[in-house]
Amino acid sequence: MRKKIQTQLRRIEEEENIKILLAVESGSRAWGFASPDSDYDVRFIYIRRMEDYLKLEKVQDVIELPMDDVLDMNGWDLQKTLRLLYKSNPTLFEWFSSPIVYQETEFADKFRDLMIQYFSSKKTLYHYISMAEGNYREYLKGDFVRAKKYFYVLRPVLACQWILDQGTPPPMLFSELMEAELPAELTGAVKQLLEIKMNSPEVKLIPRIPEINEYLDESILRMKRSVRSLEDRHTPDWNALNQIFWQELSSGSF
Question: Domain 2-119+234-250 carries which CATH code?
Answer without folding.
Answer: 3.30.460
